[in-house]
Amino acid sequence: MKLYKILTVTLSLATATFGFSQNTSIGITGGYQLSSYDAFDFSEGYNGANIGLTGVYSSSENWGVGADLLFSRSGGSFSQYDISDERVENYRTQMDHIRFIPKFHVFFRDLEDDFRPTIFAGPGVGFLVREAQLNGNDRSSDMQPVDVTGTLGAGFHYQMIPGLWLQANTAYTIGFVDLNKGQTVNPDRLSTNNWSVNLGLAYSLNKTRKAVK
After folding, report:
1. Does the pTM exceed 0.85?
2. How many beta carbons lie within 10 A of that of residue 120, not counting itself?
């Protein structure tokens, strides 16, 4: 309940702030992501997805800031070892996070153009909401509750009709936190690695077409 209240207040403040801005769009986004964990003897990735809210604010023609608030499902496989470095079992795991990803955008072409390519980068934080072993026991207590990441990507915004923008992008996300708290996994880092492809629709809050992002 406390987390729900925090998210509600945060979203309310963000919406109010965007509402008084001249160069702002908000909308929904979702897509496919291929994830893995940066661990020794990695075997295969995991086909996951993400969905959530997206927003962009820009006060100039060629740069802006934004943020995504996403529900993200990722996973991967890794090997578990005992204290004598003998392999015990290969595990395939699935994790669900709520991820907040601030972004710095660089836009190309003119402000009045309907097609606007962009590149972006930013940090991120993810809060573990569920972890499940697909071939073993639940190990949620062994996993870090908070994941810290960095994201780099590129895409475009295309204005389909005045005020309504199609957003498409591909991004790579790397984790900076060793997600495993236990002592049974090999000493290499068990960190997030995601490739994602997203599509979204965003509505401009601006009153004039020139200000639309």
Report:
1. no
2. 21
